[in-house]
């Protein structure tokens, strides 16, 4: 399983569980996330949903090998996966329960999208944010760019997009990419 879930007192924590891949999003993870969010949508015992990552990462973005290389030349499969990504993203964004991203480490590309789709985001002092696509000669696409442009000022979004620079938790808080950065070391991630 690429997701772990636990809950108590109406709070459910969903943990992206591919630490060996920095919690990069695979097709299996997309399927599991879609099923999980569908189930939580109608579970009235759940009051809050927290999203985090196992190990030292929140989410390093799409698993490039799976998402692009393995669907290259297979437009129907690529479209199916894309639809699944959009559907679970909308379930997260439009959820009637508060959603909180608990960013515990690397948060890049599609990881920024996930974080931005949550109602709130809290970052550990170890969190690092960025849109690194420009470093590979490509421009960020889809939700990886859409969410930061909605959350940030025009200049801050362009800066991240065109430089590929990384932001610390404190810098992310300063430009309001996250609600709060926990710089006192009290933020822990028991998931990994």
Q: Mind explaining what this structure looks like?
A:
- The protein has 192 residues and is of the alpha/beta class.
- Helix content is 38%, strand content 22%.
- The protein is built from 7 helices and 10 strands.
- The protein has a 6-stranded mixed sheet. A 4-stranded mixed sheet has the order 4-6-8-9.
- A hairpin with a 2-residue loop joins strand 1 (3-8) and strand 2.
- Helix 4 (110-117) crosses helix 5.
- The two termini are 15 Å apart.
DSSP strand tally: 10
Over all CA atoms, what is the radius of gyration? 16 Å
Order of helices and strands: EEHEEHHEEHEEHHEHE
Gross morphology:
globular
Would you tell me the structural class of the helices and strands?
alpha/beta
Helix content: 25-40%
Query: Can you count the helices?
Result: 7
Spans of 5+ residues with little confidence (pLDDT < 50)?
Answer: none
The termini sit apart by: 15 Å
Q: What's the pLDDT, averaged over the residues?
A: 89
Estimate what percentage of residues fall within beta strands. Answer: 15-25%
Strand order of the largest sheet: 1-2-3-5-7-10
């Amino acid at each position: 399983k690429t997701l772990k879930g636990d809950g108590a007192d109406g709070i459910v924590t969903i943990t992206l569980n591919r630490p060996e891949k920095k919690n990069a999003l695979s097709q299996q993870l997309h399927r599991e996330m879609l099923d999980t969010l569908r189930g939580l949508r109608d579970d009235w015992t759940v009051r809050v949903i927290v999203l985090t990552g196992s190990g030292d990462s929140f989410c390093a973005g799409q698993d490039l090998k799976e998402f692009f290389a393995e669907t290259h030349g297979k437009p129907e499969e690529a479209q199916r996966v894309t639809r699944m990504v959009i559907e679970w993203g909308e379930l997260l964004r439009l959820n009637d329960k508060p959603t909180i991203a608990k960013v515990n480490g690397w948060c890049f590309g599609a990881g920024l999208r996930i974080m931005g789709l949550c109602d709130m985001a809290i970052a550990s002092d170890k969190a690092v944010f960025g849109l690194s696509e420009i470093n590979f000669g490509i421009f960020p696409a889809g939700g990886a760019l859409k969410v930061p442009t909605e959350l940030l000022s025009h200049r801050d979004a362009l800066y991240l997009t065109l430089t590929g620079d990384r932001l610390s938790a404190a810098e992310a808080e300063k430009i309001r990419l996250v609600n709060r950065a926990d710089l006192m070391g009290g933020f822990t991630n028991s998931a990994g």
